[in-house]
């Protein structure tokens, strides 16, 4: 993994949406994009994907429609020859991690919004008290725990979060202190329970659903969410399907 200092991405916390034309002069074909991709640093391409995900999440918090020109100008920049690949990868990450769909609402001016694809919460608190991005992260963790058999070791949870480019020791542009959010805020809100595993040295912990999670969503909804993002039928996971339908 690249050790270069991670850029926060210019303009993430700003509300300006300039109309400067920064459009692609000519849309490259899929094969051209693939050739361009081979000439690019994969670490830098992955970094651009991560920056774009954060940029889109911040815009979504403010419910600001997102212009392609702004994506190119503020994030993609000199990597516009692989623009479509970066946007596609960011879109997959947004769907798989946060349950969000990147939707183009104006094809003439290339304007996008994010729409939620998360399991419906039966209660009001989860929807009212948490921002969309936090809710997406919480659902991702709850899904991971359920698919692991209703319990997951802390090492496995953090490995999963690192795969999502969330480092416990780094401050995240959207989530802030990720470790504090997961181990303190979600626990205090009773969405997660973290308990020590006996006779482990060094100490290990297990993550399980908290009582609020069980009240505000369901295993059936979570399984449907996982099945949708993985494009499989819920019955593909036999034991989880039986448990969810019980």
Describe this structure in words.
One of its GO terms (cellular component) is nucleus. InterPro entries: MAGE, MAGE_WH1, MAGE_WH2, MHD_dom. This is NSE3 protein. It comes from Fregata magnificens (Magnificent frigatebird). It contains 11 helices and 8 strands. The chain has 246 residues and is of the alpha+beta class. The N terminus is likely disordered. The strands form 3 sheets. The protein has a 3-stranded antiparallel β-sheet. A 3-stranded antiparallel β-sheet has the order 4-8-7. The protein has a two-stranded antiparallel sheet with strand order 5-6. It has 2 domains: 86 residues, MAGE homology domain, winged helix WH1 motif (Arc Repressor Mutant, subunit A, Orthogonal Bundle); 116 residues, MAGE homology domain, winged helix WH2 motif (Arc Repressor Mutant, subunit A, Orthogonal Bundle), CATH 1.10.10. Helix content is 50%, strand content 13%. It is globular.
Q: Quick gist of this model?
A:
With 246 residues, this protein is of the alpha+beta class.
Short descriptors:
246 residues; alpha+beta; Arc Repressor Mutant, subunit A; 2 domains; 3-stranded antiparallel beta sheet; 8 strands; disordered N terminus; MAGE_WH1; MAGE_WH2; NSE3 protein
